[in-house]
Design a protein that fits this description.
With 474 residues, the protein is of the alpha/beta class. Helices cover 39% and strands 16% of the residues. The chain contains 15 helices and 18 strands. It has a seven-stranded mixed sheet with strand order 13-14-15-12-11-16-17, sandwiched between helices. Helix 9 links the parallel strand 11 and strand 12. The longest helix has 22 residues. The structure holds NADPH dihydro-nicotinamide-adenine-dinucleotide phosphate (NDP). The site of NADPH dihydro-nicotinamide-adenine-dinucleotide phosphate has 26 residues, from helix 7, helix 8 and helix 11.
Length: 474
């Protein structure tokens, strides 16, 4: 096998201040009660910065600023709003190297992914929705669709800037104003985005960023002057938010967890399928709501597929997220690492067979080696619960009907993958899968023009594409 020389991306392309305030009404301030929390680099446990924690009064100020800005922002012609969105998209492209390094430092994801996947998609979302801003009357929602008002947006830590783009771009294009709360462990790219908004001369109050923990999010979504709530995160918190919002008249979209089946039929090209399996579960350390975390393999190809998969996994490079050769970076937080460890231990205790390639994990930071479990049954917790880490549960099937039954045997319904040479089989199986997105002979492909969202406990509403506009229009 090859030995690679280290190829670290330069950290000096990003300047991280020692402390950050809240972004309210176009400027940064420290927050009313002066509370702060620290954000760390999960690969080293080094503190990156201190960040203000927004209390109720701060959230009130942010919502009030968004409300004031709504009048003028929503009254602008769509073509004028589009100009700001195009400007934001171009600034993101110009600053993409800086933002990619920042995202890898705060999140732990490999620079190869933040540089080649996250940042290009972030810019693409702003470009895409900029294009819609002056065509809303032709989007199929009536001749004069109206914005809802102030949108409260709460996002998770797995794709911090991309989730921000998924939420902010359609909201702004449709004439809404926003108050966004990033996750506690990854606040920095949202704060840099606030700076991008200033650079784009976006009117004050159109975008407000309140950093903090779960309480800040809970207060924001419950705020009486919010018209729309958009949340991505765990099913548990999603349920709590649904209860808070119910009966208030606020519009709600929830994008929650998943336990996607990646189904490999015996006629699939094995090497291509192996790449798709690896991408499906080890991309972003498996911190992906639509990760292909349940591999369903047709029994007759189980052994050759496992041999190839293990060979391929042995070539994955785990380590420094800023090294351009790294495939698998750091787990985002100590809490998430504990959860992955616990569920993996439960997998072994319940009788599944655990395997990881030999790999040297760094001494400091939060790390978990890519892992597969074979001999998994549908009753095992690792086949039912979202692990949200680089852990794959492998099950087998004999017939297409059995594959469909097993794939659908989950409380979730966000995504699925099918690997087969036969187009007719792909279409027939895809038709029966209860999943919002079904990939065929590929996995984890995203495009701003394509709607994304789930069934059942994976949430409701769609983000992306023309469908993504609907969630922000009356
Ligand atoms: P959460 O659902 O707790 O976090 C998502 C966002 O919601 C964060 O900004 C969080 O803030 C905020 N939040 C937390 N509690 C509340 C509340 N009561 N009201 C409003 N907002 C709130 O996910 P976790 O980070 O705790 O991850 C736990 C598990 O959830 C993971 O192991 C994974 O299985 C799943 N998950 C799924 C994601 C997905 O995309 N489907 C994304 C992230 C996690 P804060 O960060 O400060 O807690």
């Amino acid at each position: 096998m090859f030995e690679y020389a280290p190829a670290p991306e330069s950290r000096s392309v990003v300047e991280i201040a020692s402390s950050y305030g809240l972004f309210i009404d176009g400027s940064f301030d420290g927050g009313k009660d002066g509370d702060v929390f620290k954000t760390v680099n999960p690969a080293t446990e080094e503190v990156l910065a201190e960040v203000a924690s927004a209390g109720p009064e701060d959230v009130d100020r942010a919502v009030a600023a968004a409300r004031r800005a709504f009048g003028t922002w929503s009254a602008l012609p769509g073509a004028e709003r589009a100009k700001y969105l195009f400007r934001i998209a171009r600034i993101i492209q110009e600053r993409s190297r800086e933002l990619a390094v920042l995202e890898s430092l705060d999140n732990g994801k490999p620079i190869r992914e933040s540089r080649d996947v996250d940042l290009p998609l972030v810019a693409a979302h702003f470009f895409y929705y900029a294009g819609w801003a002056d065509k809303l009357g032709h989007a199929g929602f009536g001749p004069d669709p109206r914005p809802l008002g102030v949108a409260a947006q709460v996002i998770p830590w797995n794709f911090p800037l991309l989730m921000l783009a998924w939420k902010v771009a359609p909201a702004l294009a449709t004439g809404n104003t926003v108050v966004l709360k990033p996750a506690e462990t990854t606040p920095l790219s949202a704060l840099f985005f606030a700076d991008v908004c200033r650079q784009a001369e976006l009117p004050a109050g159109v975008v407000n960023i309140v950093t903090g923990a779960g309480d800040t999010g809970a207060y924001l979504v419950a705020h009486p002057d919010v018209d729309k709530v958009a949340f991505t995160g765990s099913t548990e918190v999603g349920r709590e938010i649904a209860r808070t919002v119910s009966g208030t008249g606020k519009r709600l979209t929830l994008e929650l967890g998943g336990k996607a089946a990646n189904i490999v039929f015996d006629d699939a090209p094995i090497d291509q399928a192996v790449e798709g399996i690896v991408n499906g579960i080890f991309f972003n350390q498996g911190h992906v709501c639509c990760a292909g975390s349940r591999l369903l393999v047709q029994e007759s190809v189980f052994e050759p597929l496992m041999d190839s998969l293990k060979r391929r996994m042995a070539t994955l490079r785990v380590g420094d997220p800023l090294d351009k050769n790294t495939d698998v970076g750091a787990i985002n937080s100590a809490a998430q690492l504990t959860r992955i460890r616990e569920l993996s231990e439960i997998g072994s205790a319940e009788g599944a067979e655990r395997w990881s390639p030999d790999c040297q994990l760094p001494d400091r930071g939060f790390w978990f080696a890519p892992t597969i479990f074979t001999g998994v049954t549908q009753a095992h917790r690792i086949a039912r619960e979202e692990i949200f880490g680089p852990v794959l549960s492998v099950l087998t099937f004999r017939t297409p009907d059995e594959a469909v039954a097993k794939a659908n045997n989950t409380p979730y319904g966000l995504s699925a993958g099918i690997w087969s040479e036969k187009g007719s089989r792909i279409l027939a199986v895809a038709d029966q899968l209860r999943a919002g997105v079904v990939w065929a002979n590929t996995f984890n492909k995203f495009d701003p023009a394509s709607p994304f969202g789930g069934y059942k406990e994976s949430g409701y509403g769609r983000e992306g594409g023309r469908h993504g506009l609907e969630a922000y229009l009356a």
